[in-house]
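Archive transcription. Copying these from loose printouts into the bound notebook so they stop getting lost. Printout 1 of 2:
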Amino acid sequence: MQPEQKLCPQCHSTISETYYFCPNCGKNLKPVPLSTTILKQIGIYTLSIFLPPLGLWPGVKYLKENNKTAKIIGAVAIILTIISTVVSAWWFIGWFGNIDKAAIQQLNTYQNIGY
């Protein structure tokens, strides 16, 4: 069974229902589905873990897709982004707390010496 034929809205040449772009004029006929390859998933998850706020962008983008696999990728990316953000904030708060303690200790040392 052949796919249904229709006309390009721009150049009116005959196109197939399955085309994403018109082969004659290049008009975008429908959005291209997002890639769900394992390599793409690794990239998205890496972005979500190491650059937490930036992981929200592909997460939301994939959640909007109609494909079930894409929705799962988007949900995992958002969850990893949230976890990574919380862990990063916890680590930075602890790190700055240690710097604060060290600074106070230095100030107390200099006050005891008489400076």
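Printout 2 of 2:
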Amino acid sequence: VLAEHHGPALEQAAAQVNVAGAYTWGGETYKQVPRGYPADHPRAEWLKYTGLAVFAPPLPIEHAREASLIDAAMGHFQQMAPVYRWLRAALYS
């Protein structure tokens, strides 16, 4: 989050997911920026997270009985993929 390469990339990935639909974020543990980190940092809000997850909105129950379930789920996976790509790049670079 603090790194000048990965931090802005996280913001970009999050923005892509946020404009894609009604996705919610999980992993925020702290109510304020943890001690030792600058509270005025441009990405201070992300420092409150000890994990990172994106959740898709619930699918209609009708999808459970139809072949469209796979397409609907894949659509959500594709919309959330920028965060997956960010995590992968941050971990393996």
